[in-house]
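Field: COMPLEX_INPUT
Field: COMPONENT_COUNT = two
Field: RESIDUE_TOTAL = 714
Field: MODE = joint
Values follow.
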Amino acid sequence: MAARSEEQVLEAIEARRRRPHVKLMDQHVTLSHGAGGKASHVLTEMVFLRAFENPALRALGDAAAVTGDLVMSTDAFVVRPLTFPGGDIGELAVNGTVNDLAMAGAVPLALTAAFVIEEGFPTADLERIVVSMAAAARAAGVHVVAGDTKVVERGKADGLYVTTTGLGRVRPGLALDPASIRPGDRVLVSGTLGDHGMAVMIARGELELEIDLESDTAPLHDLTRVLLDAAGDHVRCLRDPTRGGLATVLNELALSAELAIVVDEAAVPVRPGTNGACEILGIDPLYVANEGKLAAIVAPEAADAALAALRAHPLGADAAIVGEVRGEPPGMVLLDTAFGGSRVVDMLAGDPLPRIC
Amino acid sequence: MAARSEEQVLEAIEARRRRPHVKLMDQHVTLSHGAGGKASHVLTEMVFLRAFENPALRALGDAAAVTGDLVMSTDAFVVRPLTFPGGDIGELAVNGTVNDLAMAGAVPLALTAAFVIEEGFPTADLERIVVSMAAAARAAGVHVVAGDTKVVERGKADGLYVTTTGLGRVRPGLALDPASIRPGDRVLVSGTLGDHGMAVMIARGELELEIDLESDTAPLHDLTRVLLDAAGDHVRCLRDPTRGGLATVLNELALSAELAIVVDEAAVPVRPGTNGACEILGIDPLYVANEGKLAAIVAPEAADAALAALRAHPLGADAAIVGEVRGEPPGMVLLDTAFGGSRVVDMLAGDPLPRIC
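Field: COMPLEX_OUTPUT
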């Protein structure tokens, strides 16, 4: 998108204010409902929150408080293809849930895994994926304690779907909460953005692009630990920018905290290959899924210490301070572009990258 | 099956002993791998246990010990059709996981739910199913605290798959364990068998049967509570005979305890309609899934008290003592038939009732 004038930005903000908070539901579920953007939020609000109303779910964090210092998180994985440069659905399913727990400041205690397998799926492929899950669980220091397997007829799945659920224990004394975000807080990311989504898209072979990209899938529990050791109470909240990317996560936080977040485009780390693939596809890397990166909102006085801690960790070498929280306009994410302009970074309306995780 | 002579039974036992414990794997996953019988056990042993090796998973209970008094259980639901007499996939998914926790003697603390939805699925159907899940969760006194939604393209699912995971806390001082089973223990079931599986099969409309059957889907946490109040330490272990039915559950327990279980066919409660449908399909109701029944192994001195407690509960009105544990032949389940003969009740080899849960 081209940079917009200040008037255009103000106009967009006004239009957003006038828009009803929740749109009427579509009559059928579309791929957009699974993309993590606007349609997903409407579905969550209108169907799931309405029926399951409870404070733990309502908080809509990466993991939900259960009782005492315990948190839980669940994720279904439907990525296509099942194996891609840098990982596979098994590793992704373990890391994805470990990371959701880590974003709640929790150490993983146990994982469960449920498999829906399409009839005719090669047993050797299943074995390879399960071995990869086991390796990822070992790397995260957690056991898969329970599981389930269902088989459906040919044509009723796409090889294999995996749902992992994690139980974690929150670091003592920690209180990560978007409500604690204040104007002046800094936005940090732990490394380059968009690598997972682009690696998966290219692995599908439909784009006829020959770019060497690897998924960034990695467990973030240890990176989170060093960050919290360094910046402790000054860390307001953590998110892993998966489906919908950093743009979606920052929109959720801006809405929840009723504050604005301004991102400096020039400061956002993106690999040249990922950037090239995004340009060819016309997709902003801010919207592309990451599976081994975290975003942290940190009080200004601790931002440098947090950045140094991230950079000292192998998974945080490319960490950067990419933005700042402001008071106005509430609920909005703005991008200061490399061209000196500014534009609204809204939630995704469609689904440019289906089945990325 | 016709009743076999004693020689035939002895022959079957000998054949079973000669059989290698774990067969070589098939090269492709088949529906049998999802049926809960022999193929499922081979897959679990050869793929999942081998990769995920840990004591909690190895125990292969309905729910796995996590830490302290916490247990977890996960289940994927792929039942077809999504709605059937007596329930729907949503209610089933909540009750199924609540029951797995209850069979570990645990009170549910929290549930999570993950949805894989096929593009084009009617939003109104999703809403109805989610409302039904919420009602089931309220009935079991538990919240759905976390969730996830993924959407896959048309033809890559069958409407909707739901995976629920539960966290529970085990009743203080309770130690349910198949290793505590002793010769002389009684086998109790809490009611009529086979209703869920047959209701779902008939709801598919492929059988051209006009029998009025309802699924027995129900949460068993309260029935379990009254049973444990009445028989406490005398309850050796509990199982809910879902996929694969009572026959599968008893085979697992007999193998695990290295004891024999003898079932009295005449004592097994089966509704006439269910029995009729089973006869037409040539399926033994012992192999048919239940979703609101428990099987309990109880010390002989407490069997009557346990039975009375079950019968006093609305979900246990048809409870019965259906069998007894013996020392020999170890690992076998035998049925004393109504005709005075005896036959081996082996694990399922194929999958006569696919996608029943």
